[in-house]
Amino acid sequence: MHYQDALVEAIREAAAHLLAEDVGPGDITAQLIPESQRAMARVITREDAILCGMAWVEEIFRRLDPSVRLRWSAADGDRLEAGQCFLEIEGSARCLLTGERAALNLLQTLSATATRTRRYVDLLDGTGVRLLDTRKTLPGMRLAQKYAVTCGGGHNHRIGLYDAFLIKENHIAACGGIAAAVEAARRIANDLPVEVEVETFDELDQALAAGADIVMLDNFSLDDMREAVRRSAGRATLEASGNVDETTLRQIAETGVDCISSGALTKDVRAIDLSMRIVELHDA
Predict the structure, then answer these.
(1) What are the catalytic residues?
(2) Given CB 3.0 to 4.6 Å as the disulfide criterion, which of 146, 213, 215, 253 pairs with 129?
(3) pLDDT above 90 as % of the chain
């Protein structure tokens, strides 16, 4: 399935799942409100953020009531300032309150991923080094968080186990060595990129000799990264991984590696503080 088609399907599935787990057989608290009551609500961010998740919010409210109107004043990837109203929602008061938590849960999580990614990308400004995500995503949110990374200016490393080879320590042991593993990968799918994770210079030399497209330098020191760049001499793309945070990111980039991957973009996110408030009420 094409990535965009898969993403559309993931949005539908996520909206259905979120509503099913939250609403269940029905929102009993919303029934306190007259069915004819209409409302307009505003969604604001209480902190600076990068917006992400519009399509999911649209799908959640579409499933509840297609007549609900959403007016966005920002788009995915835009910077939001603390206190900014970026969305107005108008429709049935019951519907707005029923969809509130499902919509905000998704929006605050994806915006958190996009926000951290943008912060890291900004730290890399001027280095030419690409920031990559990993498969360390929140369960069930792989495509959503991968999309959020792109909204923050990062790049998707690989979507899953099917679109690129990543030969790690256990693969190497099971295959009988780096050269054997790379050779087997070429036989299976010669059109897919082959990456080898290495922990020593000897393994680096083996990966380069085997013709790996990408070599991941796992927890190399800064000096060792510089030496790896010298040894590689452009024969493979070098990816730095391990001990990546805001304090080390720039130093790693300045060693000369081509890209840096970080699981923190997706697995350690802290939700952005968002709030929805009803500001107008009227009868239909």
Answers:
(1) 101, 136, 168, 197, 218
(2) 253
(3) 96
